[in-house]
Amino acid sequence: MTTAPSPRSLPAVWLRDNCPCAECRDPGNGQKLFQIVDLPPSPAVREVRETADGRGLEVTWAPDGHLSVYAHEWLAAHAPGEGERTAGDGRTEADKTLWRAADLEGRLPEAEWEAYGTRPEVRAEVLDSVLRLGFALLRNVPCEDGQVLDVARTFGFVRETNYGKLFEVRVEPDPNNLAFTGARITPHTDNPYRDPVPTLQLLHCLTNAAVGGDSGLVDGFQAAALLRDEDPRAFEVLAGTPVPFRFTDARTVLSAERPLIDVDPLGRIREVRFNNRSIGTLRLPADRIEAFYEAYRTFAGILLRPELQLDFRLSPGDCLIFDNVRLLHARTAFAENGARHLQGAYADLDGLASTLSVLRRDQQRAREAFLDELEALFEGEGAQEYLGEEVTMAQHMLQSGARAQAAGAPGHLVAAALLHDIGHFHGPLHGRDLMEGHDNRHSHTGADRLTPWFGPEVTEPVRLHVAAKRYLCAAEAEYRAALSEASVHTLEVQGGPMSEDEAARFEAGPHAQDAVAVRRWDDQAKDPAAHAPDFAHFRPLLRGLLRARTA
Q1: Residue 387 pLDDT
Q2: Contact, 413 vs 518, CB < 8 A?
């Protein structure tokens, strides 16, 4: 965890401008209630004190005596660093995973429509893929007229253009765009003649029975980065030359002048606009025109490199969502007498990013609520007796987690050791059934309860820790003799030592070794004199292992 800096080491005007108090910010929406000119021209830190709860610092300001309170966590996360630093808005190459076709071979970022609609964690993964990789593919979206608009509304707002709220990508008798023919379309971005350009595009396949018509994607940021590495001068020319883009038809005249490669003030790639069909006539000095066309040709050549283009075929029900200011999309020619019909729509990245941020915020709240639930179990039911042992259930589980930690076990095994008996918690201590001769299958119950929140590296050792006891009784002659009286009793209820065939099958399982490790810590965690940390000690470790989930 990053240490919070001292307020005296920070720029005073910056710190004062970020005062979170109710006088400076609206408590409901967090917006500032003052102008920069309302602050003293030279604020200074007069006094610094720790808050009563130890979670932050109170700062008294000179010359006006204003009091500000800053959380340690906020100071550590936001303090200025060495040199020029900015978190960015997630739109530049700094926040992207650049790729070539081979990088995504056999692992397209995709999800089923039903899962996307019903599981917030799946929706978050899809939206994250659009931001990070530039695209995602939804499968089995209903092939219904206008369904693409419903997809767009799951994360943002439809951008209506001269093509309407949605547009039909099919052969038209009198097309105003080559997209509405069967012609081959080379890699390009859409609508570069708009400012602002639609930053997201959706294409929903309703029918694709034509010969040809396969789709392709190129990571324009990857191509631009290659240009910068291979020909820095060409990159500089394209980033510094405004290009006129034009579109006209009987009802529309659109134009915008933007560079083919747009960079932010720190020089990071932020947008790519590339559409040979829409470039107008440059009006620049002759030497600049020649330099531009040389760079333009070089960049176009990179974009057409086969190793950069990811090729695939959209099937009915597929809906592609992609970043229109990063990815270039392409299409092979197709026979116009074949049935090929896509419906498209435009949206914007800011809406998608907002939806993803809300999902993540909800996920974080849900994770904390789940950890609160676990902590309450340890402090509540966990205080009850544990199957006739001399420790309580909570003491047993905390000791088990502590022994795993002391042994240097990886985090997932510490979590499994700590939570291995969570299946016993069901109102009245469910483990009593074991002592009465009934197998409550608490290992499976516990694993199932944890599965929505943890990966199999945690849940499967929990699921197998009872089987591991049965295995060890069969594999190690001295193991059974070391078991406690209560554990020997429950062994018989749980099936007794494994047969030779059962032991062989257990050994072959992918989580057998981890389950045995958890079992040994389980057996050692019954010492009434042993000290173990409380649940709060393990909470940060568990938080780091929790899956993204909101329901």
Answers
A1: 66
A2: yes
Total domains in the fold of the chain: 3
Identify the CATH number of the domain in which residue 231 sits: 3.60.130.10
Asked if the bond preceding 428 is cis, omega within 30° of 0, the reply is no
Residues 243 and 114 both lie in one domain = yes
Tell me whether residue 551 is in a domain. no
Q: Which tokens go with 464?
A: 């197998």
Residues 99 and 54 in one domain: no
pLDDT, residue 4, reads: 82
pLDDT in the model for residue 294: 97
Domain-located, residue 359: no
Q: What is the pLDDT of residue 429?
A: 36
- Per-residue model confidence (pLDDT) at position 177: 63
Q: What gap in Å lies between CA 484 and CA 492, rounded to an integer? A: 13
Residues paired with residue 475 on neighbouring β-strands, in sequence order: none
| Size (the chain), residues | 551
CA distance linking residue 292 with residue 102, whole number of Å = 31
Report yes or no: 320 and 203 within 8 Å, Cβ to Cβ: yes
User: CA separation (Å) from 50 to 18, 47, 57, 60, 175?
Assistant: 18, 10, 5, 12, 70
Same domain for 479 and 391 = yes
Q: Do the domain assignments include residue 174?
A: yes
Region for 290 from its dihedrals, namely left if φ exceeds 0, alpha if ψ lies in -120 to 50, beta otherwise:
alpha
Domain residues for the domain of 247 are: 94-347
Segments of 99-249 assigned E as strands: 110-112, 135-139, 167-169, 185-188, 200-208, 215-219, 243-248
How is the beta sheet containing 56-62 ordered, strand by strand? 44-50, 56-62, 67-71
Are both 64 and 111 inside the same structural domain? no
- Output the domain CATH number for residue 63: 3.30.2020.30
Q: What angle do CA 492, 496, 502 make, to 5 degrees?
A: 160
- What's the CA gap between 51 and 75, in Å, rounded? 14
Amino acid (one-letter) located at 120: P
Q: How far apart are CA 246 and CA 280, in angstroms?
A: 6
pLDDT for position 330 = 95
Burial of 399 (0-12, 13-18, 19+ CB in 10 A): buried
Q: Are residues 402 and 444 in the same domain?
A: yes
Q: Please give the structure tokens belonging to residue 178.
A: 């080559």
Is 550 part of a structural domain of the chain?
Answer: no
Spatial CB neighbours of 335, under 8 Å, sequence gap ≥ 6? 182, 210, 211, 212
Sheet holding 327-331, edge to edge: 185-188, 327-331, 215-219, 309-312
Low-confidence stretches of the chain (pLDDT beneath 70): 1-2, 82-87, 173-179, 387, 426-440, 548-551
321 and 419 in a common domain: no
Question: Count of CB atoms within 10 A of residue 22's CB?
Answer: 9
Residues 223 and 323 in one domain: yes
Residue 496, pLDDT score:
84
Pairing status of strand 110-112 against strand 135-139? parallel
Q: Enumerate residues 6+ apart whose C-beta is below 8 A from 354.
A: 156
Q: Are residues 221 and 160 in the same domain?
A: yes
